[in-house]
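Table S7 (text form). Paired inputs.
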Amino acid sequence: MAARLEAARRAWHGMFEPKLLTVLREGYGLQTFKADAIAGLTVAIVALPLAMALAIASGTTPERGLHTAIIAGFLISVFGGSRVQIGGPTAAFIPVVFVVIQKFGYGGLILCTLMAGLMLIGAGLLRLGTLMKYMPQPVITGFTAGIAVSIFSSQVKDVLGLRMDAVPAEFLARWMAYGKHMATTQPAAVALTVLGLVVIVALRRWKPSWPGFLIALLACTLASMAFALPAETIGTRFGELPSALPTFAIPHIPFERTFEMLPSAFTIAFLSGVESLLSAVVADGMTGGRHRSNGELVAQGIANVGSALFGGLPATGALARTATNIRAGGRSPVAGILHACYLLLFMLLLAPLMRHVPLAALAAVLLVVAWNMSEHEAFRNTLSAPKGDRLVLLLTFLLTVFMDLTIAIEVGIVVAAFVFMFRMSEAMEVSSGVDQAGDDEQRARLPKGVEVYQISGPLFFGTANRLDNLLDQFRAPPKVFILRMRLVPVLDASGVHALKKLADRCQRKGIALVISGLQEQPNRVLARMQTHADPGHMHLAPDFEHALKLAERLTRLPAPAPAQ
């Protein structure tokens, strides 16, 4: 008993122990701390403009993005299952957060984020982290490209400096509103957007190690102030940013609308889980490490709960910031913790200056983020894939853009499942077991009154009905029917039910059924479902040779009377 408890404890530690504790137990020295401190500062410089831009694009105030990067980034690094993961707000949440705030207010977003956090914790404790790797790639590429289009669409107002009130959440309605206000375009906003894009693109080409986003914001801010450009800034739209610590505060939460918000909460949890685990997988490839997927999900859940309670937004692992952390020399979760501390310091010291940042500059940052997120190469490659994958990709993409991200994910996964089932059903073949080329000698060995068929491929609910008319292939019922299953790797409950129906039909016709060559998984499923060999009903043989010998013995016995 003690040994079992110790084994269970070790297994728990293997899945849920934070990587921070693992690093500290292995030994943490001054050199590693220096590397983490430099990496944390580098990531904080990248995250500062992104956090504000993502919050504004989500329909809320810039300080909420900073609070999310600080609180959630700190918690993800403390409790996470990856050594180098950097957490915070990401572009993937923009469409869903924008819609939730418009429908339910910021209190509704708090409730959605809390529920999403609890879902993630539950998913991690139920060890569902490993299932994320089975997410179809066309679904991921489709909704990621759709989100990129939505982000681009949401920035047109600030890019052109349009004089309009609230921007509609729906894609078509949004562009119709843009068209009505196109006459209010401000050349100053367009010029600042172009300046920001030129700086970012130029630095990425010639100085990729420099913080392009931050330098672009500084260049646009200085240009706006030097030439007194009439462009909207953070200060003119949102006022002064608070230069204080995030405080624990819960606004009015519409608990009576909880069930209405469940789909949005699920979408937030899904995006957080998928994006964080994808980021952790990429980080493993860059560092040679190995993350703990279930522990990472629990950490993401804790971070989202914490972010919501301190007035933040949904959070997840950020791939670009994680890659920046690795390239800057980050070696442990301490880099992520320091990144959150640096951001807090920036917010406390630089809040009065941030009010001068033009919104057009932040729009330029998000345009680049949208382009990077579009995965245009992966999208183009998937368009050359088989028809089913193309259908899943385009459906998910179009539903993300024109309908809703929740619907897009649900429909994409369901259609991908049907495509998979169709392909598996096509992969299954039912053929005569001995009438293939070179098998004449084998057919001559068959005792009189014995017929053989062979199944190739998985026997599951999508293919089980292929056995229904198998006995109708014979002109006269044989005495023994051998069904070869050595090429069946997988059997599910529907397949077992189909075999039982086949055995019942054989019994009614007075035919002895022999199943040969069961692999390990089908054999285990049959035994678990108490489908044992039953004389006169179903016989099991380890291979075809044994099946032939058994069939020869059965043909010598008196034929059983057909069952009524």
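Next pair, protein 2 of 2.
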Amino acid sequence: MTSGGSYDAVIVGGGHNGLVAAAYLARAGCSVLVLERRGEIGGAAVSFRAFDGVDVRLSRYSYLVSLLPRKIVADLGLSGLGVELRRRRMSSYTPAGDTGLLVDTGDDARTAASFRAVTGSTKDFDAWGEFYARAARVAAATFDTLTEPLPSRAELKRRVGDEEAWTTLFERPAGETLTALFGDDTVRGVVLTDALIGTFAGAGDEDLKQNRCLLYHLIGNGTGDWDVPVGGMGAVTGALAAAARGAGATLVTGAEVRSVTPDGEVRYTVEGAGGAEHVVAGHHVLANVAPDTLARLLGEDAGVQPEGAQLKVNMVLSRLPRLRDASLDPRDAFGGTFHVNETFSQLETAYAEAAAGTIPALPPCEIYCHSLTDPSILGPAERAAGVQTLTLFGLHMPARLFEADNERARADALRATLASLNSVLAEPIEDCLLRDPAGNPCVEAKTPLDLETELGLPRGHIFHRDLSWPFAEDPADAGKWGVETGHERVLLCGAGALRGGGVSGIPGHNAAMAVLARRHGETRAG
């Protein structure tokens, strides 16, 4: 065993939140050590050449950005380090028979006409505008509070200042709201999908888990826009790593943390170092791992384990597929989020099937094409050949479906999901898949159990655990940062912190602010 000295902060996990915390703390003059288990920095926010001989850098796990505050981008100088988030004009397209619902953020008249074609009137288009106006009022009042100490429920409700908007998002199950507001099953489903990303829930569940998920999908930077990271997600974490290193933080990869003690002792081994154990002391330990994982490292009972519920599929295509609506350019359809069999009733049926332990017969999923907005992820030859990427996120695929035989269930889930996609296209997606030099189709699937193995996410839960409300549910927590644990010197700084989830950097920022506030208090006391 070797001693590695002591640090003001030891950060367990080098994902984007850990890097945000490291950059803030190092810029404030703290000594910081980041320990990352994988061979590269970035956690789930990395880019990767997934297919041999194909020069395409896919955002392998996480893929879009909405919740990263402009404040963090400005504070850490990320724009100067290459971070660029590009807006998509097309919000979404949802096939419906031989037509489809297109939401074009640059042309309200075109969107209204699309609603009329699908629903027979513009009544739901008007209700759509009403719903998202309410969401915008909540977003404007809520988003900036995510990088402040936790408000109480009453304080956040006062800031929102809109009783109907508050009731819609915070109190009434999403299913009830959508059923009352919209008449069309397709329109209801398009909104409901944002309540189910990474969340296994029914539309009407009384615990409002789906509402919390919907809220975070609607409030990013006060607009709810989901933007494309130019260069892929690895460009974002690459810039964060540069900001942390540039400020003086030490980043170590291949470092497997074995244990953490409440008084700040961290034991770890480094890959390729002969198994020797290192021990360091941290005045604070910031855990950029799931609460479940932190409990294990502390030797504590983790309690009820969370459960992820998604199938992630990465594809590289030789060309975009033809649509059943031949009048629509596929570049418009795939330029935003492409919804597949995600009507309200289809989502509820799939949830019931998965809850009963079977892969849904018609898996709902959604797709986006990174390369249409940002072709920089394509190599020169691929770009010249017109190659495109597709990222598919399948809903209602809980870990329980894969536990008996992950490999077999992955193949079954992928087969069913591609069949679901084919049911809304004019040709099989398999005919459009690029093949690598060995003749293999460029498609890969990741189950919740794959994410657990590769990223340490408990049962593949992409938010580490169910999302929280953005206020102090316990009045005693009002004024805290939402990163505290039962141990004074150990803080959460990952997605499992209050107000965590998504590529946001918010828990990393908040953990750093909690440490700096304590240091300031200690300095004054001294």
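The chain has a mean pLDDT of 96.
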